[in-house]
Design goal:
The structure holds two protein chains of two kinds. By secondary structure, chain A is α/β, with parallel strands linked by helices. Chain A is built from five helices and five strands. In chain A, helix 4 links the parallel strand 4 and strand 5. Classes of the chains: A alpha/beta, B alpha+beta. Chains A and B meet through helix 1 and helix 4 of A and helix 7 and helix 8 of B.
């Protein structure tokens, strides 16, 4: 079973996306940027969903660290945030993000579709 | 050319003297000693009277001049007092420099802004004392003043100034040259205003909307996510009644999401952060998306939403998401402000443009209000009467997006008959 890591400081968001993914994937979660980076290094997931505005280390910084680290650099990272695309999508793409979605426009079922598409 | 200047009194005196001479000479032969004396007495008498009158007049005039000069001096000193009051009490700082950029005066306002005292400042070079560090740091005082002389206009600069205590403050400065007539001595004056607080207010105002709408979006996305999970049966079977209730939640939720998105758009427009990601977009697809979004809303209001797709494939070079947002805002209004009848969506190619028309049979807009449609927060009286919940942001956002694309938004309307919004955008194919 492929492993998906979701990093978000909102417990309700973590639970919501886990519900649609847990039947087909092993879902692991982290509640802030630092925990997200540590979990990614330890668990080596196949895909990471990453929020941007989080305590300690924001999502874009985590993305930069993941891409700089040779252990995690190949893991596809999808930004899942409520910051509008205009604000951060360019920066995220430049840092190596696989894609960028705005939470309020992306229902959980859509996340299930995207995950299947990326992980095959 | 020499001009003869002679006063009325002088002319009169000399005329009378000449007249008297002529009279005396014609009545009495001048060569007798007696007559000669008569003549001398008569003429000098008349001359004396006139000279007396003239000197009295001159004395009076000089008295008046003295009074006038005293009055002028009083005015000048009052004026100087006013200037010095302004200099001493202005919250804006005033700086006076000589020809070599040496500070010759430093107002109390400037002491407060910069932290330097007048004593510390006077005699120092302005550039050395007042350090600017903003984007315009090259435009220091002497340069700016020189520019003002060569361009014949007052330079006006916003910059960051380092205070004596090392704090950076935002300042706005205007410069003027003071030339001294008769001397080849040009000095300068700068008026410097602390705009740190003003800038902070503007920044806070802009950030407020961005932060609020972002923070609103987080709980909204959670509500929307869980409602969609329930709707999909992830929490068990949903009864018909439950589904009806859920649909009410979804439609109210959509309104809230639209509102926060509109607020976010406004905040980005005002911060000039709207970026277009343009590509060749299929027009038919845009129309289809709008039909999908608003079909149920129109049906609920019993309004026919009619769509006339173009006969052949048309492309428009645009930011698809933003164009859909603009057209959705207009279509949503068309349905909202139509009580019965229909809303027609059509698109055509006209000359070099792709022209979308959104035509409704709604409440219409009064002629005098048409040109105000598209102003931020503006709503017509009819619109307010028809729906209290509108924000007056939809058309403003649509208009901004359309204009960013190099297009135009035109409105034709007849009150109580209906309105047509015409969106015209530069096309890309034939």
């Amino acid at each position: 079973m492929k492993k998906v890591l979701i990093v978000d400081d909102e417990e309700a968001i973590l639970k919501m996306y886990s519900v649609v993914l847990q039947d087909e994937f092993e879902v692991i979660t982290a509640h802030n940027g630092n925990e997200g980076f540590e979990t990614a290094k330890r668990e080596k997931p196949d895909l990471i969903y990453l929020d941007i505005i989080m305590p300690q280390l924001n999502g874009l910084d985590v993305l930069g660290k993941l891409k700089d680290d040779k252990e995690t650099t190949t893991i596809p990272v999808v930004l899942l945030t409520n910051l509008p695309k205009e604000a951060s999508a360019d920066k995220a793409k430049a840092l190596g993000a696989a894609d960028y979605f705005v939470k309020v426009e992306t229902e959980p079922s859509k996340i299930a579709e995207i995950t299947k598409q990326i992980l095959g | 050319m020499y001009k003869l200047r002679i006063s009325f009194w002088e002319a009169a005196t000399w005329s009378v003297v000449i007249l008297m001479t002529l009279i005396v000479v014609s009545f009495f032969p001048w060569y007798t000693a007696e007559n000669l004396l008569r003549y001398i007495f008569a003429t000098s008498g008349v001359a004396a009277i006139f000279w007396y009158l003239k000197s009295r007049r001159l004395y009076r005039e000089s008295q008046e001049k003295t009074l006038e000069i005293a009055q002028k001096q009083k005015e000048i000193s009052a004026h100087q007092k006013t200037i010095s009051l302004i200099f001493d009490n202005s919250a804006d700082g005033i700086l006076i420099l000589d020809n070599d950029q040496i500070i010759t005066d430093f107002s109390p306002g400037l002491e407060k802004i910069t932290g330097y005292s007048k004593n510390e400042a006077i005699g120092k070079n302005a550039q050395e004392l007042l350090k600017f560090s903003g984007d315009n740091s090259n435009s220091l005082l002497p340069d700016a003043m020189f520019i003002s002389r060569s361009l014949h206009k007052k330079p006006y600069i916003r910059n960051t100034l380092m205070t004596k205590q090392g704090r950076e403050i935002d300042v706005e400065a205007s410069y003027t040259l003071i030339s001294d007539p008769g001397k080849n001595n040009i000095s300068g004056m700068a008026i410097i205003r602390d705009i740190t607080y003003e800038n902070e207010l503007v920044r806070r105002d802009k950030e407020f909307i961005a932060i609020t709408s972002h923070q609103l979006n987080t709980p909204l996305s959670i509500i929307q996510g869980y409602v969609s999970l329930i709707k999909e049966g992830k929490a068990g079977k949903v009864t018909e009644t439950q589904m009806n209730y859920i649909n009410e939640i979804v439609s109210a939720l959509k309104k809230m999401i639209d509102l926060t998105n509109n607020l976010l758009s406004i905040s980005r427009i005002e911060q000039n952060k709207i970026k277009l990601e343009k590509s060749d977009v299929n027009v038919a697809e845009i129309i289809k998306k709008i039909m999908d979004t608003f079909g149920s809303f129109a049906k609920k209001k019993n309004i026919d939403l009619i769509c006339m797709q173009p006969k052949k494939d048309l492309l428009v070079y645009a930011d698809q998401e933003k164009l859909i947002q603009a057209l959705s805002n207009i279509t949503s209004n068309a349905i909202k402000y139509t009580q019965k009848g229909k809303v027609e969506l059509s698109v055509n190619r006209e000359a070099g443009n792709i022209v979308f028309q959104i035509k409704d049979s709604g409440i219409g807009i009064a002629p005098e209000e048409i040109e105000r449609i598209g102003e931020k927060f503006y709503r017509t009286q009819q619109a307010i009467d028809a729906d209290h919940q509108g924000t007056g942001l939809g058309v403003f956002i649509a208009k901004t997006i359309i204009e960013k694309h190099g297009g135009t938004l035109a409105i034709r309307s007849v009150l109580n008959k209906g309105t047509t919004f015409v969106v015209s955008l530069p096309a890309t194919n034939y």
